[in-house]
Amino acid sequence: SFSMRLLLIAFLICLMPTAWTKIYKGYISKRTKVQKRFWGGMDTNTGANFGGWLLRIMNSDGTFACGASYYAPMLVLTSANCIRPYRNSLDGVSVEGTAIYGEERDNYALIDTIYMPESFKPRQTDMDIAVVRLMRPIKGRLTEFIKLCETYPLTGMRMTAFAWGYDSFDVQPPSHLTKKGDVLVENFAECRRKFKGMLDLTLTSICVTEPKDPRLCLYDGGSPLIYKDELCGIVSYGSGCSNTSIPGVYTNIMEVKKYIFSIQKGIKSGAI
């Protein structure tokens, strides 16, 4: 009967993947509880995007500056090396979502402040993390947050990298759409050897083996490296796609979490 068919359809909808629930009812506000809006991994994405946590920092002239990840309503994470050149001229520099629902036009925010560790030195990889404070939350019905890494990256672990190709013009033109690809974590001691004399890697970095074909290489400053549904790395400094025999260097989120928490705490208490 017709009513039985309706019941069956309703039951099947209940069994469908959570992508159906990923079009959130409202926008993110300053008071949105982060854990209620965590990205659930690749199978929970709605439409042709890689999740509402994946962001781009754009220059005032509309050109790409850095990749970034949405961590809390007013906080975004990126690489200090990547964002540092923009820190004194933030007029018009915006952070925009990459997952857009329907005709949305307003899913971006301007930057208020950029926090970087005191020990960070430009063109070095140690503590290469920047916490970007927004002027308002990023709107969007698909916008969500990503959990920080809870799984220590070990040699041979398969992770997923994201990029657009803006930092590899010499290889091929950048893509407006995000690309993703799997990479393997490389042995750290071996990686340090490969960079000897060029770059001094510390424990706040992890290395990944880049694909042999430069066109498959994904490496834009500040862009994320994820494991399952966790943010475990951020593209750091010292590598690129023109020579893929050199590993990709990422900031190890497990090693900079304390700094991220300290900034969050400082903002909450009004100390910074």
Largest sheet: 6 strands, antiparallel, barrel
Q: Output the CATH class name of the largest domain.
A: Mainly Beta
Record field, number of beta strands:
13
Quickly count the domains: 2
**Number of helical runs?**
4
Order of helices and strands: HEEEHEEEEEEHEEEEH
Subcellular location: Secreted, Extracellular space
GO molecular function, one term: serine-type endopeptidase activity
Organism: Drosophila busckii (Fruit fly)
Enzyme class: hydrolase
Which SSEs are present, and which pair or pack?
Blueprint: H1 2-15, E1 54-58, E2 64-72, E3 75-78, H2 80-83, E4 94-97, E5 108-115, E6 130-134, E7 147-148, E8 158-163, E9 179-185, H3 188-194, E10 205-209, E11 224-227, E12 230-235, E13 248-252, H4 253-269
